Amino acid sequence: MNNPIKIGDQLIGEGYPPFIVAEMSGNHNQSLDRALEIVEAAARAGANAVKLQTYTADTLTIDAEGEDFFIHDPGSLWKGQYLYDLYRQAYTPWEWHEAIFKRCRELGIAAFSTPFDETAVDFLESLGAPAYKIASFENIHLPLIRKAASTGKPLIISTGMATEAEVREALDTARGAGCRDIILLKCTSTYPATPENTNLMTIPDMRERFRVDVGISDHTLSIGVSIAAVALGAVMIEKHLTTARSEGGVDAAFSLEPDELKRLVEEAGRSWQALGTVHYGPVDEEKGSLRFRRSIYIIKDIKKGERFTKENIRIIRPGLGMHPRYYEKILGRTAACDIRKGAPLLPDQIGED
Predict the structure, then answer these.
(1) Mean local confidence (pLDDT), 308-335
(2) Is the pLDDT of residue 75 over 90?
(3) Most buried pick, 55, 212, 234, 280, via CB within 10 A?
(4) Partners of 258 in beta bridges
């Protein structure tokens, strides 16, 4: 078992309930009031943290309109936009961060962010960020990983698109910079993602292969994938949150609404509780049900000395007679006494023959 990681007041890891992160992204639609509404909705729903993204269009790309900077993918939510324009529309103004972090603290949930360049790490350090998330598209940005890891804060690395070698390189870079508290997130970097492309069986493999705890960054349209991930050992769930999909937003189409996030929190908790421990035999609450198992009963009056046959004994409910394993051995034996129909067959009722 890996040592638990602490973000805010919460411990995260095997043996602890899944840590639920509400990703705000650009769903604030450039309104601080709406950003704070998302924080409040996350807290009411029971999320453990709100996560921001800290970048500007200029820290992600350049203002250029060449073909390289145009989104052509017909399946993309953002088809037909230039990268710079998209990021300018979606970014969270840095001057909002302090107010958002403050509101999270007031509501008792953690706030942290995804930095997209080294200057963002410095900025987030000035706000006392408790952890850093490395986005899937940045998991090959080794200087950024090195910078975030050097803070000594927990590092959460999304693995979308990364090969095994790239995941290992990111981990080696983070550890080489002094970071010991690392969580990997299984992620499929399509927006939205489909369940069939999610490959949740990678979660236990990642935990075993890389010796770190693993969660999921889930871009599917419902909560089922996240619940299944908990059953496979996910210690963290990240889902995008909006106050209402109908109000639009760059990520609204694959974001949860508050009531859906609340259901995710509840069902993820139930899924985690159901994991329990390896256990065989009845739990205490089952012991009352043992009497309704099957056992050997007399189904026809039997006289002393009469042989037991398929016509006068049968394996039925309830379970107060002899165990069914003895049925074949009893057939052909004789009764040691008279036995009435409906009585459980007991060992002292069987003759010595």
Answers:
(1) 98
(2) no
(3) 234
(4) none
Residues in the chain: 353
- Separation between Cα atoms, residue 217 and residue 157, nearest integer Å: 10
Which residues have CB under 8 Å from 77's CB, separation 6+?
191, 250, 251, 253, 254
Q: Which CATH class is domain 5-55+91-275?
A: alpha beta
Name residues whose C-beta falls within 8 Å of residue 336's C-beta, 6 or more positions apart in sequence: 304, 348, 349, 350, 351, 352
Q: 5-7 and 295-298 as β-strands: parallel, antiparallel, unpaired? A: unpaired
**Integer CA distances (angstroms), 339 to 198, 293, 296, 322, in order:** 62, 22, 13, 14
The angle subtended at Cα 105 by Cα 101 and Cα 110, nearest 5°, is 75
The yes-or-no verdict on residue 98 having pLDDT over 80 is yes
Residues contacting residue 329 through CB under 8 Å, at least 6 positions apart: none
d(CA 287, CA 301): 31
- Give the pLDDT score at 248: 85
Closest alpha carbon to 90 in 253, 256, 250 = 250
Q: Is 330 helix (H, G, I), strand (E, B) or coil?
A: helix
> Taking the domain 284-349, which CATH number applies?
3.90.1210.10
Structure tokens that stand for 318 in this block: 């309830």
Domain-wise residue ranges, the chain: 5-55+91-275, 284-349
pLDDT of residue 73: 86
